[in-house]
Amino acid sequence: MGDKTRRKELLAQYKETQPEAGIYRIVNGKNGKAYLDSTPNLANIRGQMEFAKSTKNMLSILNQRLRNDIREFGIDAFSLEILEVLEITPGMTGEEIRRDLATLEELWREKFDPALLY
Asked: Domain for residue 43, yes or no?
């Protein structure tokens, strides 16, 4: 198989692959507070969390509401939890995905004490 053919196959595969969308929370293990959010790309959130933990001082990569507690408790006090992955069907538009994520996020917010959310 030639390089051009392989490249075309990989490009087509990439275009067909939908990123994993879902609801997540970043939990402060020291005080029990959590940042709850949704994203159309969970891989980005995983990467941000890994990068923040590997650099220990890149507070700007995570949501600003977490920064004071990260300074106080350290990034290692925080963990990422994936609460739900949205099932994306091939015909869904970006708007439909965002709307479904917003609905799921609201449902998840009802399960947690608002006083414990950032």
From this structure: yes
Q: Tens digits of per-residue pLDDT, 46-64?
A: 999 999 999 976 777 889 9
Q: What would you measure as the largest C-alpha separation in the chain, in angstroms?
A: 59
Cα–Cα distances in angstroms (integers) from residue 42 to residues 24, 46, 113, in the given order: 8, 6, 24
Spatial separation of the C-alpha atoms in residues 52 and 50, rounded to whole Å: 6
Q: What is the pTM of this model?
A: 0.82
> In this structure, what are the phi and psi dihedrals at residue 9, rounded to the nearest 5 degrees?
-65, -45
Residue 77 backbone class (left: φ over 0; alpha: ψ -120 to 50; beta: rest): alpha
3-state SS class at 5: helix
* CATH code, domain carrying 96: 3.40.1440.10
